[in-house]
């Protein structure tokens, strides 16, 4: 594949648009099979060759040719006797004539595909929101495709995190550092599944001096731009919305910190 200039490109999870050409083919094959399968849907395997034949011999609007013609330089002719009234004439080409014909065809196909791609991109960009991230940024991850146990999926959080970005694979595909409680989840995601983490504009103001408050649980940890380690502390007898960031040296709860570190 390297000798002919083919490059491998890995797609991100839960984002079909990354591999749009293959997804489009799968959708068309599915439409063919859906129209001819039985009620029990057990004969779809037997119908695959016919679906393949129909797809490969259909002229595509984006190229103006059928896939079979683009590859072989001629339309597919069924075996004599299978279909009545077929054209049994066979036009032979010299190698040079075939090469000239295919070169002209491929140039037209390349130009047509580029035009179709630009047209599709123009339509998609009208609804696309550009997102820009860099390594080290904190982002929230959508729970749309994540299996997390909740009593009710509808009442569960739409996003979880924040999680740090550890690698930018390409402008729209990022690798995150995920906690162990998410299991062996593939940590590469499309930017459409991420949301920027923003610091609260107005930090919660305590009405009671902090020295008289008891720590209930450690919820998170972060490192500021100045290198200061802080923990997100939930206070006993206070709602979770009252949680605040506290420096490590101001916390007198080594056991809770150790439990948090062991968990994450």
Automatic annotation (TrEMBL):
Where's it found, cell-wise? Nucleus
Cleavable signal peptide: none
A GO biological process this protein is involved in?
Answer: DNA integration
In what residue span(s) does the Integrase catalytic domain sit?
1-75
UniProt cross-references to PROSITE patterns, sorted A to Z: CHROMO_2, INTEGRASE
Highest taxon of source: Eukaryota
Q: What is its main location?
A: nucleus
Q: Name one GO cellular component term.
A: nucleus
The organism is Micrurus surinamensis
Name-wise, this protein is Integrase catalytic domain-containing protein
Q: Which residues form the Chromo domain?
A: 213-264
InterPro entries in the record: Chromo-like_dom_sf (IPR016197), Chromo/chromo_shadow_dom (IPR000953), Chromo_domain (IPR023780), Integrase_cat-core (IPR001584), Retrovirus_Pol_polyprotein (IPR050951), RNaseH-like_sf (IPR012337), RNaseH_sf (IPR036397), SH3_Tf2-1 (IPR056924)
What does the record give under GO molecular function?
nucleic acid binding
**Which Pfam families does the record match to this protein?**
Chromo, SH3_Tf2-1
